[in-house]
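Milestone M4 deliverable, item 7.
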Amino acid sequence: MLAGAAEEARAAVVEFSGDTVGDYLGVSLEDPSAATHRFLADVPGYGGWQWAVVVAGYPGAGHVTVSEVVLVPGPTALLAPEWLPWAERVRPGDLSPGDLLAPPADDPRLVPGYTLSGDPGVDESAPEFGFGRKQVLSPWGRAVAAERWHEGEYGPESAMARSTKRACRDCGYLVPLSGSLGTLFGVCVNELSADGQVVDFGYGCGAHSDTPAPAGTGSPLYEPYDDGVIEVSENPAPA
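Output delivered:
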């Protein structure tokens, strides 16, 4: 009785949503008292979705009743991406000129900085030592930045670093950072390589300052032959 209630299920969808019922897809028993009939849904914007109609009937009943009519995604349904809060949708590179992006409330990457004392002798020299900012990077903020740089495009495990035997730590084009981050990272100033990028000391590339010049470069041993003085003439016609 439950499996044979396809027409009752189709009529329930028509009553619920009008003429949006497509081909019949089959039935599955949920338990001895309920079954689900499925139809292809013909609803704009819901390609691959299905109408699922649950019918119920207690053992020995002479008819079934419709318990539920729902629109459910099928195996090929187009689904919306998982919802993310706005703050988590922003990705590196999304910021464009004119955009404003405030730090998160209670950002663990930041801690209170040096507060001006009012003494001109102290306050004027404070910026030279990195003071004078309302907030500064916390130890946790430095740690997560170091981990991100170490594992990123300019870290020791990148494809570029693995393709060379030389490392940035002994390259003349490296300018180390100040503070604790300067023990592991610096800025590359080679315009033909990672110019302006923070690189791990274990990173490396083929433009290292100690890269030897390839053999065979320089002036040739002999002067090139000047073929501009050759007189070109056509071959005589055959006899």
